[in-house]
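Internal tracking record. Fields below are filled automatically when a chain is submitted to the structure queue. Please do not edit lines marked as system-generated. If the sequence contains nonstandard residues, flag them in the REMARKS field before resubmitting.
Queue: standard
Priority: normal
Entity type: single polypeptide chain
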Amino acid sequence: MRPVNLIPSEERRGERTPMRGGPAAYIVVGALLAALAGVTVMVFTDNQISDRKAEVADLKQQEAVAKARAQRLAAYTQFGSVRDQRVSTVTSLADSRFDWERVMRELSLILPDDVWLTNLTGKANPTVQIDGEANVALRGSIPGPALELVGCARGQEAVAGFVSALKDIDGVTRVGVQSSQLGNSQSAGGGAAPAISDSGSSTSGCQTRDFVAQFEIVAAFDAAPTAAATDPGSAPTAPAPSTTDGAAPAASSTTSSTPGG
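SYSTEM-GENERATED OUTPUT FOLLOWS
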């Protein structure tokens, strides 16, 4: 006998069973899946935002702690800054110091017997002001240490020899003669040596004889470090000794010498 399926077609199970819900069921399932994905993304994003906020709060707390610690250590920082400034100042002063004692000692060794000084000024900077200084005009063009020498010598040849001797002092880079003039009576006479002068200053002071030449000389130490303008370190200034007409000027214990007979 041939088998006959008595189950109605709408209730049969298998490949040929028609779709009961149609495509609407798939649409609903897709929408649910999309909603689930959206909720998952929102939850993940919200968690990230919460983590970032917590990290920002932690960093702010660390910043506050660091600022409080920096304020506690500010005094040490200021002390270190003051120390560095003072070390720099001391170093600068030490570098700009000039050995005037050595220069004076060498000057006393090379000073000829026929030359004597009435004023000797040593300054590390031309802007330094000293009572009784020589005020030789050439000094203003020398930025570093220099000696200003004013005095007299037995003639122009003695002045030239003194200029040459000054160059033997250690550190002297150049020697300039501001003026060198003989006595008035010999200058007016015939056959007298001509006067060398840049300033036109009149002869006076130590010129007690016609053959005596009065000079103004500057010896520069250009290779020496330049001291600060406020540096008070300078060589002592020798005041001009008193003179008596017809007599040689009195010798100073530190800066003058009487020419030999």
